[in-house]
Amino acid sequence: MEEICKNWSTWLKKTRFSYMSEEQKNQTLNWLISVRDIVILTAEIQKGYKVADFGCGSGLLGFGILEKFKDSVELIFSDKFSDCLDECKKILESSNTPHNARFLQSDVADIKLESNYLDRALTRSVLVHVKDKLPAFKELQRVLKPGGQYCAFEPIISENTRYYELLTPDNISDYEDFKHAEMEFMSNPDDPLVNFNAESLDKDLYEAGFADVLVSVNPVVSKYVVSKDAVETWFSAPPAPDQKTMKQRFLDYFDEQKVDNFIKEVVLALSDKEVQVSARTAIIKAKK
What we know:
The protein is an alpha/beta fold and 288 residues long. It folds into 2 domains: 3-156 and 196-222 and 276-287, Vaccinia Virus protein VP39 (Rossmann fold, 3-Layer(aba) Sandwich); 161-186 and 227-272, no CATH class. Helices cover 42% and strands 22% of the residues. It is built from 11 helices and 7 strands. It has helices at residues 3-14, 22-43, 60-69, 82-93, 133-143, 163-166, 175-185, 198-207, 228-236, 246-251, 256-270; strands at residues 50-54, 74-79, 101-105, 118-124, 144-155, 211-225, 274-287. It has a 7-stranded mixed beta sheet. Helix 2 packs across helix 3 and helix 5 (133-143) crosses helix 8 (198-207).
């Protein structure tokens, strides 16, 4: 791993993954790197291309591209949140990697680029933060050159393991209440995290004007020992700056005392226990 990606991984471990055990940090980081490599390989980037990492976040895709291509491609880090771009700038400035990169603060549904500009548009876990996917797909299609490609990774969160599947009525006082609430808010059509699946992505991409659309879905199963800190973070950390925490989602159904008691019971039930969770993820490739 070259310096630019070492700096990125060090930053990630100290910030977003700070609550995890070292084993979990390494497991998650290795998984992210494998996701990055699959998306970049799928994109078939060549020297001289103009490439954008939209919703770049911590720069997973962008720094992977820089590691491989350095200054032989024009690279745009784009995100609607300035703090994400600031972190990417710091990581880039701390490296001696030659580059032809710039930063663009822009929403993926309103991209501040001219039409027919890019050879490749990439995203990773961005659509889960976009309520209406179709306008975003239309913008991505617009900024691509004819023959350009959109390549992405998206978690299909609506099909992930649920909390109630890790628990039983024996260790949760109001198990059925919380199961019902979780089933309801995890199928909310107005929630961008869960209002899509592989079939809806495929449909929206074609409607946006893409051709040769391929949405490949893969199951991911992982096992790990749960820490008390991890459980508390599940409920207190928002999935995005503009999203409710899991605790806040349950507070839409129950009073705070009941939710706090539920969280305490989850901590007692799962702390220091090995759990197995499953998820479904999608790799997207679509041509203009």
